[in-house]
Amino acid sequence: MPGCNWLLAQDSPLTLGSWGILSGFQEPPLSSLSPTPNCAGALGPSPAPAMAPGAPSSSPSPILAALLFSSLVLSPVQAIVVYTDKEVHGAVGSQVTLYCSFWSSEWVSDDLSFTWRYQPEGGRDAISIFHYAKGQPYIDEVGTFKERIQWVGDPHRKDGSIVIHNLDYGDNGTFTCDVKNPPDIVGKTSQVTLYVFEKVPTRYGVVLGAVIGGVLGVVLLALLLFYLIRYCWLRRQAALQRRLSAMEKGKLHKTAKDSSKRGRQTPVLYAMLDHSRSAKAASEKKAKGLGESRKDKK
């Protein structure tokens, strides 16, 4: 009733606003409701209390109500996500693989299904050309792709890919992959466009990648040659340094040897000189003794 607000008793955990929306999931007892003075006359006398004072309330707890509301209403729903290539190229008479994979918040179900649809280039309607369900592939045996589709997917790996053999110009169009993984069945499909050429053209990305790869290869080769030349030069310098150090050590050793020889020759010379002196003195003394003995005899 417009302009009429209901008030709850102080011991009631529920509230009733001016729009008549309760915060709980059960209606409050009549004893806990009391109209404002504006509504008292319109509703007549208030009813007798239906519950004795002190009796436990049958209304749910506000915390429990909030938890239920958040879990049932506010929890986000995650939809299944399907992935395919944006476009694929193939040559006439060759084969092409149409990849399809998916992500799901649920485990892979036994009721998992893959469905491929084909919309010709310039056409409006899409037709089903392949279906996988209950572990069995079902291939269209009437349409354009009769006996040309091969199932190569693996449901356990979330793969629903197919191969189309013996491509023709009439195969140009859009292929749509749809996946259902009960109970996760909500989600968008994914589309891949097939282009059939007489000869598969070289894409700009491939050419650019080849150019970048060639440049990187040349740079790496130049760096390799630089480090190889530097290594050889350093090795040669080290060998020369070892030779020079060996020569210096040889000279020092020779000098030390010569000096040691000289040191050994000097005492020998002195000894020889001393010996010659002593021998000369002895001979002189002997001669002097002989001379004195001769004088005595005379």
Layout of secondary structure:
Layout: E1 6-8, E2 33-35, H1 37-43, H2 62-74, E3 80-84, E4 87-91, E5 96-98, E6 100-103, E7 113-120, E8 127-133, E9 136-139, E10 149-151, E11 162-164, E12 173-180, E13 187-188, E14 190-197, H3 204-297
Parallel strand pairs: 3-13, 4-14
Antiparallel strand pairs: 1-2, 3-6, 5-11, 7-8, 7-12, 8-9, 10-11, 12-14
Structure description:
By secondary structure, this protein is an alpha+beta fold. Among the domains are: 80-197, Immunoglobulin-like (Sandwich), CATH 2.60.40; 202-252. The protein is built from 3 helices and 14 strands. It has helices at residues 37-43, 62-74, 204-297; strands spanning 6-8, 33-35, 80-84, 87-91, 96-98, 100-103, 113-120, 127-133, 136-139, 149-151, 162-164, 173-180, 187-188, 190-197. The strands form 4 sheets. Strands 4-14-12-7-8-9 form a 6-stranded mixed β-sheet, with no helix packed on it. Strands 6-3-13 form a 3-stranded mixed β-sheet, with no helix packed on it. A 3-stranded antiparallel β-sheet has the order 5-11-10, with no helix packed on it. The longest helix has 94 residues, at 204-297. The chain is rod-shaped. The model is unreliable at 1-52 and 71-77 (pLDDT under 50).
